[in-house]
């Protein structure tokens, strides 16, 4: 099964908590509740539109993305204040709806990876779960192992993607919803990520 522009889901038990659950979603295509959504931008980042990670939280997203990209020989991503702001709006909307569920990103012009954890997940942990799907991807024939998903991984390492912006929401239940947006989007049907 080749990676596609449709959603990809994977339910994994985490090592941090035996009863915790982690759910991943990769999509491509295209404010203030009780628990605030966090956009990882700084005034300097907002002024320049795209920047290297200027905050430790932004670096927590960017570093594992760029490590995975370096491992397959693709250029590093830059942090985008605009994408981070857009991701914050998405998680805030999902949070306001009271579900903290995955957003429907089908109409977005950005690529998107989403992660949901039943506990307060760290950004690097969420990205690591997306990258871990790489073990199911076979570059030689651009497919995922039968019965497995690898779309979050292929979005992380998509060669043409240049910018990244992410945000998280802490849900009333203690869960965490994470959204990362990618520009340009990846996971184009029939194309190899690198």
TrEMBL record:
Q: Does the keyword Signal apply?
A: yes
Q: Which UniProt keywords apply?
A: Signal
> Entry's SMART domains?
SCP
Q: Which residues form the SCP domain?
A: 56-190
Cross-referenced SUPFAM superfamilies: PR-1-like
Check the UniProt entry and state the signal peptide residues, or none. Answer: 1-36
Protein name per the record: SCP domain-containing protein
